[in-house]
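Q: Okay, next protein. This is DUF1508 domain-containing protein from Flavobacterium macrobrachii. I've checked the sequence twice, so it should be correct. Can you predict the 3D structure?
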Amino acid sequence: MGTFVITKRQNGYYKYEFTSRKGKTIFMSDDFELRFECEEAIEEFRNNIEAVFFMKFKSKNGKFFFKIILKEKEIAVSRKYTTQLLLQKGIDEIVRSVSKSEVLDFSVQDFAFPSAEEIFGNE
């Protein structure tokens, strides 16, 4: 089962990636100014998977990739694949697991462990 991973870019914008069950990125979204816009885009994608169109391309260096089109708008671009078969497997993984995939939010940099200063104090 795939997973949506929300992260924050260095420029302050949010994005989501859809990763395979093995943790490999399948596609990456466009940028969003606010986190809730990113979350809404994920829900819209999930709820409209039957209306999604996968536009396939071949790069100049011979790699294959696809763009995801929803409601006549490009919403994401895939990673590069070495063969058309692997590209199709990526698309199949999306169609098969996107509706039941979980969302992980790594956009907030809250760490589970306290800092060294909190533990040992400032000496």
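A: Here is a summary of the prediction. Residues 3-109 form a domain with the PH-domain like fold (CATH 2.30.29.80). The radius of gyration is 17 Å.
Q: Noted. On to the next one.
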